[in-house]
Specification:
mainly alpha, two-stranded antiparallel sheet
């Protein structure tokens, strides 16, 4: 969320108009129509680096880096959810609250209506469902012993 609010020029500078840019519809481009607007690449779509692969060029953007970090955090959260103590119930409640807040932000605030934020919201849902499932299985296993 911090990356979204640090963009000073609003939604366009955060998300960018990459589709219009790739279609050649931006102001100053050769094929642009007369009424073309300036295009912003946006913070999420800005390229951090590019790597040449045998299959072609691969670009890593800021949004991709955020998703990679979120996947690592999701993995750590899944490992942590294997416990069956009282603190894990509080953890699950906070995970559910995080998912609900992200879903409301995605649905109601234009700044968060991006594919990157949607994927982060879905990762939060996986965290909630996986956490409850893993805790239930671990608790059942502890009851048998």
């Amino acid at each position: 969320m911090g990356v979204a609010f640090t963009s000073s020029n609003g939604v366009d500078s955060f998300v960018g108009t990459l589709d219009k840019f790739q279609a050649g519809q931006c102001e100053g481009m050769a094929n642009a129509p007369a009424d073309a607007a300036p295009c912003y690449v946006g913070v999420l779509n800005s390229k951090l680096f590019s790597m040449d692969l045998p299959s072609g060029s691969w670009n890593l953007t800021t949004g991709d880096l955020i998703l990679i970090f979120a996947l690592v955090m999701l993995f750590m959260e899944m490992i942590k959810s294997a416990g069956s103590g009282t603190s894990s119930l509080i953890n699950h409640g906070l995970s559910m609250l995080t998912f609900l807040i992200s879903m409301v932000l995605f649905l109601m605030v234009p700044l968060f209506a991006t594919t990157t934020f949607f994927l982060l919201t879905m990762m939060s849902l996986v965290n909630v469902l996986g956490g409850f499932t893993i805790t239930a299985i671990a608790a059942r296993r502890d009851m048998r012993v």
